[in-house]
Amino acid sequence: MGAIVNGANPPDFAQLAGALELRRDEVCSSFQRLTRTGELTLWPDSYSLRLLPPFGVGSGDVTVGGALVGGGARNWRTWGLWHALGIPAALAGIGLVLPAVTVGVRDPRGGEPIPLRLSGSTVSPDPGAPEPVVLIRSPFSRWWNDPAAAISAVTLVDSEAVGHAAGVTVPLQQLSDLARHWYADRLRPQWRPYTSAEARTLADSVGLRGPEWQLRP
Predict the structure, then answer these.
(1) What is the pLDDT of residues 160-196, one digit of tens each?
(2) Does residue 102 contact residue 65 with C-beta atoms inside 8 Å?
(3) Quick one: which of 120, 113, 50, 101 has its CA closest to 78?
(4) Which domains does the chain have, with CATH numbers?
């Protein structure tokens, strides 16, 4: 994880097995276990890393950039709006503060990325840009503990597209508040995956309520 925090890619499967002096099947077993708990995401039918949430591995479809307090400018890549909003929160949780963050989220219909700015706990579009809309395409129950599902479930679209898309809309700031709380401990040693009750409490704490946000105990 340290390599990704510094803006680099982690070791690949073969490098990891060699560095840890593990057999291939042992690494496969560990990856499968961590995938089940949502601690990493693999590409389908492979053992290539796609996500170490909230950080993406490889090219990603979202760019997150900023200058660390006391450090230089950094750029990270990830997959999807949900994880992009989580990167500044995860870094802040270990004392790496980004006073101002730029996020380029690609509209799922294609075209130029939709630019966002994060300053402290506030998120907003670029000055003069139209107000984007967060479209939740799947119920919370389908993606809260599945980082891969969250990529397509939580999308950012321009306001003109929302009338033609299936799902529910939420304010961008509200989703950002959830991501900030959700990922605050992600890089700390004591972090563990949330229970469904804890996840529900977090969503409720930022006002995300209703049938689409319900989880089974």
Answers:
(1) 656 666 788 899 999 999 999 999 999 998 999 999 9
(2) yes
(3) 50
(4) 58-213 (3.15.10)
